[in-house]
């Protein structure tokens, strides 16, 4: 998914200097952003107070939206570099096309994982014949320096491992949780999991104390370490936890995001993750000139135009603002 904000603001992310080294309960409110004409998302990362959780650098939550009489998601071809995109649905379908020739419909609880590496472009849209509701999350994972120029590739996994407890099912999207390992390729120590909880369930999820974590509420009412987290909001949890208490006040679903704090400082602007302003500027120029990022075939419409670069130079500000 693209960052369609026409006032794209560059931010410097990463570095361990701003990682919270102990458990905290920091509730993050979303920013509402339009994607095309028919989809509005709630953006949780980057956030006014926090830019990354482990290698997770971008989180959008959308829906549930009634698109029975609407075109649904329509995100034209756009570029990416230096990151992975993770497409995750609870309802509906998204048709993925990319400049490698990939054509894949992603359905609920299936992993669509695109590794941009040095350069790729893609589009995302609701199929012409689609379900009445669309509900999901789009996430980006920053690639570390050693892997950020890998060859681009796309993976689709419909069979993902689960961890179960009474009233709780955790589907492992990326990385590892309680011994269950996702088949998706990960380049840093990371975890992403979708948790479904039955009403009244109380559970304690095992965590890695060296990871930092956050929980995104997808639906229902959940208490996370005693804090009510409602759909479309995210609770940042810091590091140093060995387990996470959860209680479902209703049937609910949340996403657990975590990972080893990211060592490197990054610049994220529009749909690019880089290390210097010159690198970002070159990527923008290449996209606008039709170089490097390839062509997406089959989408009915023109590609996105990149917003203008800011007039002011970037200034490192760390993981939090």
TrEMBL record:
Domain Pirin N-terminal, chain residue ranges per copy: 41-141
Top-level taxon of origin: Bacteria
InterPro entries: Pirin, Pirin_C_dom, Pirin_N_dom, RmlC-like_jellyroll, RmlC_Cupin_sf
Region described as Disordered: 299-321
Domain Pirin C-terminal: 193-292
Pfam families listed in its UniProt record: Pirin, Pirin_C
Protein family membership: Belongs to the pirin family.
Protein known as: Pirin family protein
């Amino acid at each position: 998914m693209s960052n369609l904000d026409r006032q794209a603001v560059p931010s410097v992310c990463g570095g361990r200097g701003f990682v919270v080294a102990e458990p905290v309960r920091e509730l993050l409110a979303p920013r509402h952003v339009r994607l095309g004409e028919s989809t509005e998302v709630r953006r949780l990362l980057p956030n006014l107070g926090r830019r990354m959780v482990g290698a997770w650098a971008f989180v959008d939550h959308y829906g549930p939206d009634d698109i029975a009489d609407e075109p649904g998601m329509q995100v034209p071809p756009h570029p990416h570099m230096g990151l992975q995109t993770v497409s995750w649905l609870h309802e509906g379908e998204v048709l993925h096309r990319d400049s490698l020739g990939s054509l894949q419909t992603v359905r609920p609880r299936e992993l669509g994982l695109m590794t941009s590496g040095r350069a790729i472009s893609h589009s995302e849209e609701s199929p012409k014949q689609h379900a009445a509701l669309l509900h999901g999350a789009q996430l980006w994972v920053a690639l570390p320096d050693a892997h950020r120029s890998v060859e681009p590739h796309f993976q689709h996994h419909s069979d993902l491992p689960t961890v179960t407890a009474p009233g709780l099912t955790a589907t492992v999207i990326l990385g590892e949780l309680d011994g269950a390992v996702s088949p998706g390729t990960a380049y840093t120590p990371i975890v992403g999991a979708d948790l479904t909880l039955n009403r009244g369930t109380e559970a304690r999820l095992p965590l890695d104390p060296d990871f930092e974590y956050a929980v995104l509420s997808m639906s229902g009412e959940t208490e996370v370490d005693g804090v009510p987290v409602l759909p479309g909001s995210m609770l940042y949890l810091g590091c140093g936890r060995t387990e996470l208490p959860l209680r479902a006040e209703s049937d609910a679903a949340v996403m657990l995001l975590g990972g080893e704090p990211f060592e490197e400082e990054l610049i994220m602007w529009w749909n690019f993750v880089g290390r210097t302003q010159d690198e970002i500027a070159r990527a923008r120029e290449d996209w606008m000139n039709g170089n490097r990022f390839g062509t997406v075939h089959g989408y009915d419409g023109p590609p996105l135009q990149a917003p203008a670069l800011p007039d002011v130079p970037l200034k490192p500000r760390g993981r939090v603002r």
